[in-house]
Design brief:
This protein is of the alpha/beta class. The protein has two domains: about 65-235 and about 245-315 and about 335-340, Aconitase, domain 3, CATH 3.30.499.10; about 350-515, Aconitase, domain 3. It has helices spanning about 65-75, 100-110, 135-155, 175-185, 215-225, 250-260, 275-280, 280-290, 305-310, 375-380, 380-395, 410-415, 430-435, 495-505, 510-515, and strands at about 5, 45, 85-90, 95, 125, 155-160, 190-195, 210, 225-230, 235-240, 270-275, 300, 340, 350, 360, 370-375, 405, 470-475, 490-495. The radius of gyration is 22 Å and the shape is globular.
């Protein structure tokens, strides 16, 4: 049994507010989730699991601190910090991409001068990834601006792409920035990583402070190498127990967001600990931290351990020093903390149009879908595709709706064609996907997750049926109107297991139908 708890309530009454059953608009009557009144969350009071780890030093520590507070203290050269303190933080890595990079560069040149040099050419990582495989002239121009700036500044880590007709002809091109940052060794415990993308919090999986910033802030960091930040209070989520075989980290974070709402962690650090978290591989931890921002979180963070260190072997030669929360650290708010049982009730997807609009897959079994999308920084990693392949392999059936596969990076794309799927007799993901009738894996990028130009692969354009909106089950991270293109599109956020099961039936489907 998995028990998840958070330091979030001063009394024994659960902090989590039950939500009204939210149906879809009357105009989309064919798509409706039915929530049985008998289903409810099993709540109890539980103390958090305290791992016996030695706190990392941050100078002369006067009072206990959380992981995030320690990272802030080290980066600001302070011995002690508490939530609410405003400090100048030295940045270890700044990342930007083709959507926000040109604006950040423009601000840098305006404020520091046309001929100014960046603060450190080896601490800036520039990754084209959003609007890449398109004929849109403005999108192509953005990549050109990045290239010119990187040549001018001699930026060491620029993952360029020139030949849009064949991504494999571009050895430097990587793909989705948040996955590429990890694969290329730019994510390290104890460091500060800022990026011009809200899902920069993904890197918190490595025990570092990582958060998204705007173009103005990024322009300043380009020139100064530091930024004024407020120390966030920390919400601590303790998840203990063995993960059931039909659950993934996506289920855990969707459940958490559904409990606390899209504003429940506003400008707070979301710290994930416990035996369940320790059992997750790095890519699953990345999924967990990736969606912290969907709860309003300033950052998500997981303590570094042997899993982290093993992943980093051979990826970075930069020395790093992990930090861990002190046993007596203060969390927000203090007091007792409720727990919810994930073994009894697991929300396996989110229905339109908000990331906290939870529902059980089985409650939505009558929702007919038009397509399935596997991809993005949240759900386009190697482990995500292996999960999809596992369901297809177990089912031995073909998909009933178009199923689009968009690997996050070149490495992920290569993995699909080279790594044998466990229990398949040596078959790779690509072979299983072909047998299941999926689309051929596309060029690695953010793809349709952010909509993009109209010629973006798998983008939701016009509705698939004249009288209904397009309905997509997706492994991405947001389901606001227009997020994946057409404003009438309906996006059901789900784990790779649930997305794969739904592709096989043409309806929202609980993966346990194929994974039992």
């Amino acid at each position: 049994m998995i028990m998840a708890s958070s330091l979030i309530a001063p009394t024994s009454t659960s902090f989590f507010q039950s939500k009204k059953d939210i149906g879809l608009s009357p105009s989309s009557s064919r798509h409706r989730c039915h929530k049985p009144a008998s289903r409810r969350i099993c709540c109890s009071i539980a103390a958090p699991h305290q791992a016996q780890r030695q706190p990392s030093t941050t100078g002369s520590v006067k009072t206990a601190m959380t992981m995030t507070e320690k990272i802030f203290a080290r980066a600001s050269e302070k011995s002690y910090l508490s939530p609410g303190d405003n400090v100048w933080v030295n940045v270890d890595v700044l990342m930007t991409h083709d959507v926000c990079g040109p604006g950040s560069i423009g601000i840098f040149k305006r404020e520091f001068g046309e001929n100014a040099k960046v603060w450190d050419r080896e601490k800036i990582v520039i990754i084209p990834d959003h609007y890449i495989f398109t004929s849109d002239e403005r999108a192509n121009r953005n990549v050109d601006i990045l290239r010119d700036f990187c040549n001018e500044q001699n930026i060491k880590y620029f993952y360029d792409i020139k030949d849009l007709s064949n991504f494999k002809a571009n050895p430097d091109y990587k793909g989705v920035c948040h996955v590429a940052l990890a694969q290329e060794g730019h994510c390290r415990p104890g460091e500060v990583l800022l990026g011009t993308d809200s899902h920069t919090c993904t890197a918190g999986a490595f025990g570092q402070f990582a958060t998204g910033i705007g173009n103005t802030d990024a322009g300043f960091v380009l020139g100064a190498g530091k930024l004024l930040l407020k120390v966030p209070p920390t919400l601590r989520f303790v998840m203990d127990g063995e993960m059931p075989p039909y659950l993934l980290a996506k289920d855990l974070i969707l459940q958490t967001i559904g409990e606390i709402s899209v504003a429940g962690a506003t400008y707070k650090s979301m710290e994930f600990v416990g035996s369940t978290i320790e059992s997750l591989n790095m890519e699953e931890r990345m999924t967990l931290c990736n969606m912290a921002v969907e709860a309003g979180g300033k950052n998500g963070i997981v303590p570094a351990d042997n899993t982290t260190f093993k992943y980093l072997e051979g990826r970075t030669s930069v020395p790093y020093e992990p930090v861990y929360s002190d046993l007596q650290a203060s969390y927000f708010p203090p007091g007792v903390f409720p727990a919810f049982s994930l073994c009894l009730l697991v929300y396996t997807l989110v229905i339109p149009h908000s990331p906290d609009n939870r529902a059980l897959a089985r409650e939505c079994k009558d929702v007919e879908i038009d397509r399935v999308y596997i991809g993005s920084c949240t759900g386009g990693k190697t482990e995500d595709f292996l999960a999809v392949a596992k369901v297809f392999l177990a089912a031995g059936k073909k998909v009933k709706v178009p199923t689009f596969l968009v690997p996050a990076t070149q490495k992920v794309w290569m993995d699909l064609y080279s790594i044998p799927v466990p229990g398949s007799g040596g078959k790779t993901c690509s072979q299983i996907f072909e047998e299941a009738g999926c689309d051929t894996p596309a060029s690695p990028s953010c793809g349709a997750c952010l909509g993009g130009p109209k010629d973006t692969y798998a983008r939701l354009n016009e509705p698939q049926a004249s009288s209904f909106a397009s309905v997509c089950v997706s492994t991405t991270n947001r389901n606001f109107p227009g997020r994946m293109g057409h404003k009438e599109g309906e996006i059901y956020l789900a784990s790779p297991y649930t997305a794969a099961a739904s592709a096989l039936t043409g309806f929202v489907t609980d993966p346990r139908e194929f994974l039992q």
